[in-house]
Prior knowledge:
With 297 residues, the protein is mostly helical. It has twelve helices and no strands.
Amino acid sequence: xxxAETANLFRGRACALGxxxxxxxxxxxxxxALRELPPGLLxxxxxTLGAGVFTLAALLRxxxxxxxxxxxxxxxxxxxxxxPFHLMIQSVGLLTVSASATAWILAVSPALVALLGWxxxxxxxxxxxxxxxxxxxTGVFLVAGGGKGPLxxxxxxxxxxxxALNWAAFxxxxxxxxxxxSPAQMGxxxxxxxxxxxxxxxxxxxxxxxxxxxxxxxxxxxxxFLGVGCSGLAYALWYDALLVLPVAQAxxxxxxxxxxxxxxxxxxxxETPTWPLLAGGGAILAGVSILSRSGRx
Length: 297
């Protein structure tokens, strides 16, 4: 019995680590794909491949693939927020922001979740939690603009920060649905409805499907990695991890995500880490860690 529990824990941790590794490399892959694909078309490809892989994984696991009638509007709004809108503003931001800086800025999402929970749900924050949020946001200001200070900030930095805020709002809004739906069922519904909502992106300038026929092998590799790996397999692995791990323990693996992005961005894109970037990243991780230990994460 003990060995079975140990095996389940090992499997859960392996799944969480696998998902985080995919997501850490996703920023580098997106930078590579955006060299050949416009943001709108890249997001549609990610949504299409991700929804297909996630559906296949759900079928293999015997999950219930049904969207309750009374939850459809709610899940559709979450689908737009969490999939095409989130990926679109993030992709446009990545046109001018490094993969490393993007990963660090998005790592502040847990702090923003706590802030929104305090502002709109009446959740207690406390002095320790507020201090953690302040430290994390200080790190964001160091990271944004490539560590060059206010004069270096760009529209891309603002869009990446907006995507972090949007993800935080998505997480807070998801709490109601998780009271009546399983995480796997809710995740599948959001993924499929988000894919449907991504089709208008094909009407944007330059988002003709014929562009896909001109992709280089490297472009196809990056797009497939993002769609199949990051938007499909990674989410399936994450929900598998949540079946056996407490949310806090699974979430701890996400501290590795920006570190993976920094290393892969350095080796694959030549994005040399700067001291302001590392200092800001350290402040973000420290602030989020303080917040999670305060019990308000």
